[in-house]
């Protein structure tokens, strides 16, 4: 009996050994040379990154970026009008501020801090008024006059076609996951300077067709700013407003009242839309460093200056680093 067990054991052991040897030679070599492989992966990553950036430009026609980018999070397409039950009388809308601050009416929470309710108290009003799908909040065309209180894990906010007049510093407080805010087509004439600055994940701030006369400060995470069709003069931009935004790729300020091209522009910038402003002149160093004629700004391939009084022929030394000449009057 004892011998049988030993034999069986040996059989098992050899099976295991066989399995070990069946590991492909490649895999074992990888384990033996972690340093070499690590270096290889780094190179691969860099290559892939370049490829991705190149492909991006091919897939997305940058000149049509505004139209194409809508619903980039691939949320299910939702018909406007089915978003929120429209109250018959606007006066019956719940008072968001009051509803959100009714701690006395809340039953004492029995759940521990690790298991909060999906939208603890304050998030509820926005998900009654709006449609919450996953972490996206859709408030389009919902007659809003203020930014609603948002669930703390909100990632995307769509509040287009409303009557929002201002964005306050407290409106987005603590929304650490918020990546995109779309407030297209409201009546926003004022945004507190800190309304967006402290949002650590914000990549896209979309504010076209409002009444802004000044831009608020932007977080360093911002990739795309769209403030087309507002009333922003150059004095509405802080000096060097975009210099330190190292992630900024799309800066769309067409149809405003700018007198100058905002400079310096970060190296990350790919698309600068300034058409239909009041730009009459520019500095030789706006796009390229006139002291460094070997400079190449491969990323900055989409500059629009058409619809401005500027005659681009008068600045022949301003474009040498660009992959393409700006669009405009020569
Ligand atoms: C722009 O300036 C150039 C050089 O002075 C001139 O030849 C050209 O006619 C101007 N173009 C326009 C549209 O005014």
UniProtKB/TrEMBL annotation:
Segments of this protein annotated with the region Disordered: 82-113
Domain of life: Eukaryota
Keyword Signal: yes
Subcellular location, record wording: Secreted, Extracellular space, Extracellular matrix
Residue ranges annotated for the LRRNT domain, each copy included: 126-156
GO cellular component terms, semicolon-separated: extracellular matrix; extracellular space
Listed GO biological process terms: articular cartilage development; bone development; collagen fibril organization
Chief location category: secreted
Range of residues in the leader sequence: 1-22
PROSITE patterns in alphabetical order: LRR
Keywords: Disulfide bond, Extracellular matrix, Glycoprotein, Leucine-rich repeat, Repeat, Secreted, Signal
The UniProt record lists the keyword Transit peptide: no
Protein name listed in UniProt: OPT protein
Annotated source species: Furnarius figulus
């Amino acid at each position: 009996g004892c011998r049988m067990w030993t034999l069986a054991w040996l059989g098992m052991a050899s099976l295991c050994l066989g399995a070990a040897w069946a590991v492909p030679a490649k895999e074992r070599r990888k384990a033996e040379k972690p340093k070499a492989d690590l270096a290889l992966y780094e190179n691969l990553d860099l290559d892939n990154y370049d490829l991705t950036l190149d492909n991006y430009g091919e897939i997305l026609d940058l000149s049509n970026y505004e139209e194409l980018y809508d619903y980039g999070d691939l949320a299910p397409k939702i018909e406007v009008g089915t978003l929120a039950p429209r109250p018959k009388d606007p006066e019956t809308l719940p008072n968001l501020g009051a509803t959100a601050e009714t701690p006395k009416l809340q039953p004492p929470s029995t759940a521990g801090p690790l298991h909060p309710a999906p939208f603890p108290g304050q998030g509820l009003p926005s998900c009654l008024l709006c449609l919450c799908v996953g972490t996206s909040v859709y408030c389009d065309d919902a007659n809003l006059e203020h930014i609603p209180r948002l669930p703390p894990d909100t990632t995307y906010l769509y509040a287009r076609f409303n009557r929002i007049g201002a964005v306050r510093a407290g409106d987005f407080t603590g929304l650490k996951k918020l990546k995109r805010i779309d407030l297209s087509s409201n009546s926003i004439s004022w945004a507190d300077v800190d309304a967006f600055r402290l949002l650590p994940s914000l990549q896209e701030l979309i504010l076209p067709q409002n009444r802004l006369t000044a831009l608020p400060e932007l977080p360093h995470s911002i990739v795309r700013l769209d403030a087309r069709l507002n009333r922003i003069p150059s004095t509405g931009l802080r000096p060097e407003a975009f210099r330190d935004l190292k992630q900024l790729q799309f800066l769309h300020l067409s149809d405003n009242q700018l007198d100058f091209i905002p400079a310096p522009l970060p190296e990350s910038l790919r698309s600068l839309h300034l058409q239909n402003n009041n730009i009459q002149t520019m500095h030789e160093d706006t796009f390229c460093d006139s002291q460094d004629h070997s400079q190449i700004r491969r990323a900055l391939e989409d500059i629009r200056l058409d619809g401005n009084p500027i005659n681009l022929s008068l600045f022949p030394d301003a474009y040498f680093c660009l992959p393409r000449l700006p669009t405009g009057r020569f």
